[in-house]
Structures are given as structure tokens and as C-alpha cells.
Specification:
This protein is of the alpha/beta class and 393 residues long. 21% of the residues lie in helices and 28% in strands.
């Protein structure tokens, strides 16, 4: 329970913004905060650790059953609390990191609890989850950073759930030396600046993965953690098992990173279809994979292209945006009856909802890998294998 403070009770449980609360911090929740309760309401608290007692100031209160707050004083600290490596990773500071104040190993444990809770709540599955560390450590991994620019032309990072721009000298998540030259010069007021490690003069970049070089046009998606692309390649290579002469689909396929794996398994007599809406990504992928004629490309939105694809694929791989697949796409995939569905998800709630939809078509979650592709933040990348459930006797 939370301890009562000296503030007056608020009629109708609204108007708590700027109120100071003394809270007993409970479990971590999806979104980079922990859950506390005060006067019958849920308080989502940032900059706290489960088990702590804190003073927190309410930052948002739209009424209803919950509000949001920042822990501004720690009255009883968790042994899992550490000093944040960045001076702006604090209440009122940069909103990019959620867990810099938490031991790195504990961060992964908290993320695992979130994934397991989403699967339990939204898919009805009880599953033990382990979030795996990627090579390279918790700092210096962010190969792409989007900076915001304030009204005076100074670049920085946005505050949490705000358009306010926080001035910074550097970011410890970015590779050393990447940001200071960009931060030192003026920019168009009110704009944004994308800073990409290894960017060439023309704005493009070359990345290495799956034993290949990928020349990417400006703005084309690539995994932001340097180890993530090859990690995904390894998982898909292990799980896909596309038979020789087989058929596979790579939905939301980008430049065809995972299609390259599927095509090697299917062989020249097989077929792999990539569906991607970004024409620049398709053009980049065609160039990178020109030696694999078994790959075909469809440019368009998955929900529009999918019903027009011919035949039954043995394997479907999908890496959708944060909102997930949704009912229409899940229904369309399941209607073709693939033997294996590999789902790459950057949001555990979307993953869990879609796993539940696939269950309605007789598919079960048989494998799950959770990867700490975004250390210091609440984000976690999951890869799930779904297969038809065996018939009941």
C-alpha cells in the first residue's frame, strides 16, 4: 500500500498533476514504468525500481483509474538501483532511456517479466521467459539516433511523452564520437536530424549481415543494434527449415535480410516472396540479392498484397511494425496453412495479441527467444515460432 501524504483528497480522483505522493513501488509494467497504488488509483511510476519506497510527483493526470508520475526522491532504495551513466537520464530529462538507474542484468529480468505477463494476460499462456544479452555491452550500441531540434536550432533529445527538447552534450548509447559534431552545429529550428553510424557523404550506409554487404538508401530500415541483424539471421536459419523446392514468404521484409536465409534453404528451384511497402527498401534489396533469382518482390502493404499471393507457403516470416499483424493479416496467413510461422516482434503486447489470434486458428507457440536489442530502454525484441497444434485424440 502507499502511505498517505499531506495533500488534500482530490474530488473525483482528478487534478493530481504536480501532486507529490509517497509510494510503495510494485511490479514493472509494459512501457518502462512500475506500478504503485494511491487512494484507490494506479500510479505508473518512472525512475523507480520494484520494491522501493519513493516520493513521486504526478506528471500527467487525465482522470480515471490511473495517472503517471516520476520518482524524484528515493526513501528506501532497491539493491538493484545503480547510478545512471547519463546526467539527463532523470526525472524531467531525456525520455529515451527507462532503466539507466537499474542494474543491467536486472533490466533484462524486468523485461522478461513484462513479456511473460503480456503472454499470460493477452494470450492465456504461462511461459518462463529469459531475455538474452547481445554482444557489445549496454552502451555505445545505438547505430542510429534521431535528434530533435528546438526553436533556436539546437539539437537534442525529447523529454518523455513531450515535444520539449533536452539539450545534451552526447549520448552514452551512441558510438563514441558520433553525436558531438552534429550537436555542435545549428540546424533548422523545429526539425529533426537522423544521425547514422558509418553514413557516407551521399547519406546512405553499408551494413554487413548474413555474409553479405547491404547498401542502404537514406532512411531505409535496418536493425539499430549492430549484433541484431545476424542474430535474427541465425534464429530464422535454425527455425525456418524451408524444404528444397519449397515456398516461403517474407512479410514486411525490408531489404530482404531474412529472405536471403529462406532463399538459401529453398534453393534455386524454390521460391521466396518478399512483401514490403517501402520502394527504396525493395530497390536496395533487389540489388543486394540479385544473385538469388528465386526471390520475388511485391511492393505494397501486406494486408493488400497477401490475399493475391499464390499457393501455400511452407514457411512465413513476418517482422511487422509495433502495432503487430492484427486480425485481418493473421486470418489471411492462417488460411494458407503454413507449417511454420516465424514472428519477429518489437512489442510484447502486440505479439501476445497476435499469438492469441493464431491460437484461434489452431496454431501454438512452440519457441520463443527474447533479445535485449535496446539496453537501458524498456524495449525488447522477441522472435516467436508458431506451428499447428497436434490433433487431439
Amino acid at each position: 500500500m502507499s502511505r498517505a501524504d499531506s495533500s488534500p483528497s482530490v474530488a473525483g480522483a482528478t487534478g493530481w498533476t504536480d501532486r507529490m505522493l509517497e509510494l510503495e513501488v510494485g511490479a514493472v509494467a509494459h512501457g518502462g514504468h512500475c506500478v504503485a497504488r494511491h487512494e484507490g488509483r494506479v500510479v505508473f511510476v518512472r525512475h523507480a525500481v520494484p520494491g522501493e519506497r519513493v516520493r513521486a510527483v504526478v506528471t500527467e493526470d487525465g482522470g480515471g483509474s490511473y495517472c503517471r508520475a516520476d520518482a524524484v526522491a528515493v526513501l528506501e532504495a532497491s539493491p538493484d538501483r545503480v547510478d545512471a551513466p547519463c546526467p539527463v537520464a532523470r526525472p524531467g530529462g531525456c525520455g529515451g532511456c527507462d532503466f539507466q538507474h537499474v542494474d543491467v542484468g536486472v533490466q533484462r529480468r524486468l523485461k522478461a517479466e513484462v513479456v511473460a505477463e503480456q503472454l499470460r494476460r493477452l494470450a492465456g499462456l504461462e511461459r518462463t521467459v529469459t531475455v538474452e544479452e547481445l554482444p557489445g555491452g549496454p552502451l555505445g550500441w545505438r547505430s542510429r539516433v534521431r535528434l530533435a531540434v528546438d526553436a533556436d536550432g539546437q539539437a537534442g533529445l525529447r523529454a518523455h511523452r513531450s515535444h520539449d527538447v533536452i539539450p545534451i552534450a552526447d549520448c552514452p548509447l551512441a558510438p563514441e564520437g558520433l553525436l558531438p559534431p552534429v550537436l555542435a552545429r545549428p540546424h533548422r529550428p523545429g526539425g529533426e536530424v537522423d544521425v547514422v553510424a558509418g553514413a557516407e557523404a551521399a547519406g546512405g550506409v553499408t551494413r554487413q549481415a548474413a555474409g553479405r554487404s547491404w547498401r542502404l538508401s537514406p532512411g531505409v530500415f535496418w536493425q539499430v543494434h549492430p549484433a541484431m541483424a545476424d542474430t535474427l539471421v541465425g534464429i530464422v536459419a535454425q527455425w525456418a527449415a524451408v524444404p528444397a523446392y519449397g515456398r516461403a514468404w517474407d512479410l514486411y521484409g525490408g531489404v530482404g535480410l531474412l529472405a536471403a536465409v529462406l532463399a538459401e534453404q529453398a534453393g534455386r528451384s524454390g521460391s521466396v516472396t518478399v512483401v514490403e511497402s517501402d520502394r527504396r527498401a525493395v530497390a536496395d534489396g533487389r540489388r543486394a540479392l540479385a544473385d538469388l533469382p528465386q526471390i520475388g518482390w511485391r511492393t505494397g502493404r501486406v494486408e493488400q498484397v497477401l490475399p493475391k499471393l499464390p499457393g501455400r507457403p511452407e514457411v512465413v516470416v513476418a517482422d511487422p511494425p509495433r502495432r503487430g499483424l492484427g486480425r485481418a493479416v493473421v486470418d489471411a496467413i492462417a488460411a494458407r496453412g503454413p507449417a511454420r510461422m516465424i514472428y519477429v516482434a518489437c512489442d510484447p503486447a502486440s505479439l501476445a495479441r497476435d499469438v492469441a489470434l493464431f491460437a484461434g486458428h489452431g496454431y501454438q507457440l512452440t519457441q520463443l527467444r527474447a533479445l535485449d536489442a535496446f539496453p537501458m530502454t524498456h524495449h525488447v525484441e522477441c522472435v516467436a515460432l508458431l506451428e499447428p497444434a497436434p490433433p487431439r485424440h
